[in-house]
Amino acid sequence: MKALNNLVIQVSHSAGLFIFSAILAFGSLFIVFFNINDVFEPIVGAQLFDFQNDLTVEQVFEQLPNYNESAIALYYAFVFIDFLFPVFASLTLGAASAFAIRYLSPRWYGKINGLNLFAVYFIPAMFDWLENFSAIAVINAYPNELTWAAGLLVIAKKGKLTTVMIMQLVSWTLLLLALLKWIWTFLLLPLLKWIWTFLLLPLLRWIGRKVGLTK
After folding, report:
1. Whole-angstrom Cα distance, residue 122 to residue 131?
2. Could you tell me if residue 45 is left (phi over 0), alpha (psi between -120 and 50 degrees) or otherwise beta?
């Protein structure tokens, strides 16, 4: 847990590492969508299990008869990429959150870092890996129906989707708050100071002189 937390912190301190992580995350997703899933779907008549958010155990076994050698080979290629994608996606979100919290509140950043809590951003990746292992087990066992593995696949998928939504919501909220703080600190506050110094204060002095309050 400490190693994962430290990895998030390291990436959050380096723009180059953050960009590299984001490119690997979204680049691998692009490859899956436009090079694997587009070929896979016409063969099986359905998307990869990973992209069927409402997948049920019954649907898993309804689709498996259409898994020929080509479909299985494509699924293996997908799984290879999908073991990398969630790692870099989690790392990107975690690093963005660490950066935002460090800017918003160094004190809270120190507490969270001290407890190694930035490692929780890898929870979606763990669910994704469990989903992949379950899918491979189901595919390899067919025509024997591993109901327990199909059930685990569906549960892991729900866990992945839930934790991804939570992590994304947290990350985007923190980034938005950090942006608002930056706008206030470097744009609005200087603007208000300038308005007070060069517009309002001279105006108040002029009014004071006119009514005899100041000389």
Report:
1. 14
2. left
